[in-house]
């Protein structure tokens, strides 16, 4: 029995972690932490948990949590995990951080983009970027996981094979991404009210979204050289889902079969990345509620560019599902345990 604690259990990602973990017979959630709802029944906050747990919310005491849990998930705003973590905690429990605190290896870049002083830079180099498709072996040995962001996960998996193989000119890469409103978190914000988002779509974080350096850093590792991109996210009026459409110039003439073979080479053994059939574009409705990422591409011979596409559920593979995938790897469990989720439709 693995004992788990969730800090930020009443946010959207924390709630999704609870939903997925409560279905497992090998996991016991020993601590639901929430600053806003201490001593309140967890099921009174998320009524879908009624009769599934009788636990009450506790304070976010990571030190005490490490005494009672084997793994701690921190589904919190940036800065909190770094402010709480210590060598003592890491010596007792594995920590999977769903915030950006340990994703970016250059502390100066993190502080510039997130406008925060990093509280625990001594752990940045140790933290493993938790994208199993590229870091599986390192994740298995880690005690601190930096769970990737939702946009970076979908973008990277859509682009990675061609970046790694040098088939695209990364200096021309433009990423257009769209997300459902749950990606903005559960906090009350005027811009996220129903009347503000319904029947509308808008770009935000233009030329300055915080996920930009994370995407650039991971693509730089893949390409073996610095990568700078244009990344523009959009908010769409749906609960869940991310759709990425990325454009880049081809480094040389290639055929559909050649590019398809590259994607298949990288992903044919990956449980959660589905390379679609020719001319089938990824859609968020076909991955909703699952840990899948659907990817595909289209070559435009007229412009000598390639369009790379990806779709996934931002709450599952983009947050809680990927965190559980990482937990499974750390504890030597089947990677898809608890994640064999058939996409929901309609």
Number of helices in the DSSP assignment: 12
Number of domains: 2
Radius of gyration: 20 Å
- Contiguous low-pLDDT stretches (5 residues minimum) are none
Tell me the overall shape.
globular
Structural class: alpha/beta
The CATH topology label of the largest domain is Dihydrodipicolinate Reductase, domain 2
Helix proportion: 25-40%
**How much of the residues is beta strand, in percent?**
15-25%
Distance between the termini: 35 Å
What is the CATH superfamily of the largest domain?
Dihydrodipicolinate Reductase, domain 2
What does the average pLDDT come to? 97
CATH class of the largest domain: Alpha Beta
Strand order of the largest sheet: 3-2-1-4-5-7-6
Tell me what you see in this structure.
The protein has 346 residues and is of the alpha/beta class. The protein starts with a strand and ends in a 16-residue tail after the last helix. It folds into two domains: 2-126, 3-Layer(aba) Sandwich (Rossmann fold); 151-313, Dihydrodipicolinate Reductase, domain 2. The model has no long low-confidence stretch (mean pLDDT 97). A seven-stranded parallel sheet has the order 3-2-1-4-5-7-6, with helices on both faces. A seven-stranded mixed sheet has the order 9-10-8-11-14-13-12. The chain has helices at 12-21, 42-45, 62-68, 80-84, 87-92, 107-114, 132-140, 150-164, 194-197, 212-223, 256-267, 316-330, and strands spanning 2-7, 27-33, 57-58, 71-74, 94-97, 128-129, 144-146, 168-179, 202-203, 230-235, 242-250, 273-275, 293-300, 305-312. The protein has twelve helices and 14 strands. It is globular.
């Amino acid at each position: 029995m693995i004992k788990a604690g969730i800090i930020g259990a009443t946010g959207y990602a924390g709630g999704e972690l609870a939903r997925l973990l409560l279905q497992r017979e090998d996991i016991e959630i020993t601590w639901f932490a929430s600053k806003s709802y201490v001593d309140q029944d967890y099921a009174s906050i998320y009524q879908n948990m009624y009769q599934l747990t009788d636990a009450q919310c506790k304070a976010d005491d990571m030190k005490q949590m490490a005494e009672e849990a084997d793994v701690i998930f921190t589904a919190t705003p940036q800065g909190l995990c770094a402010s709480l973590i210590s060598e003592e905690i890491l010596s007792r429990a594995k920590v999977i951080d769903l915030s950006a605190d340990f994703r970016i290896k250059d502390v100066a870049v993190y502080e510039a983009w997130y406008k925060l002083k990093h509280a625990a830079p001594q752990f940045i180099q140790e933290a493993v970027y938790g994208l199993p498709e590229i870091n599986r072996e390192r994740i298995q040995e880690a005690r601190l996981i930096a769970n990737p962001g939702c946009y970076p996960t979908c973008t990277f998996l859509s682009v990675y094979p061609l970046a790694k193989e040098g088939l695209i000119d990364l200096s021309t890469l433009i990423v257009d991404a769209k997300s459902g409103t749950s990606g903005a978190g559960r906090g009350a914000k005027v811009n996220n009210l129903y009347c503000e988002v319904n029947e509308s779509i808008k770009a935000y974080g233009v030329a300055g979204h915080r996920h930009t350096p994370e995407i650039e850093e991971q693509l730089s590792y893949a390409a073996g050289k610095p990568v700078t991109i244009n990344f523009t996210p959009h908010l769409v009026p749906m609960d869940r889902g991310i759709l990425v459409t990325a454009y880049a110039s081809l480094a040389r003439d290639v055929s559909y079969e050649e590019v398809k073979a590259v994607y298949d080479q990288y992903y044919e053994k990956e449980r959660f990345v589905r390379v679609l059939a020719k001319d089938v574009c990824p859609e968020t409705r076909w991955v909703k509620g699952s840990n899948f990422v659907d990817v595909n591409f289209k070559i435009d011979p007229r412009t000598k560019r390639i369009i790379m596409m990806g779709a996934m559920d931002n709450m599952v593979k983009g947050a809680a599902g990927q965190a559980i995938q990482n937990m499974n790897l750390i504890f030597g469990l089947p990677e898809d345990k608890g994640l064999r989720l058939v996409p929901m439709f309609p």
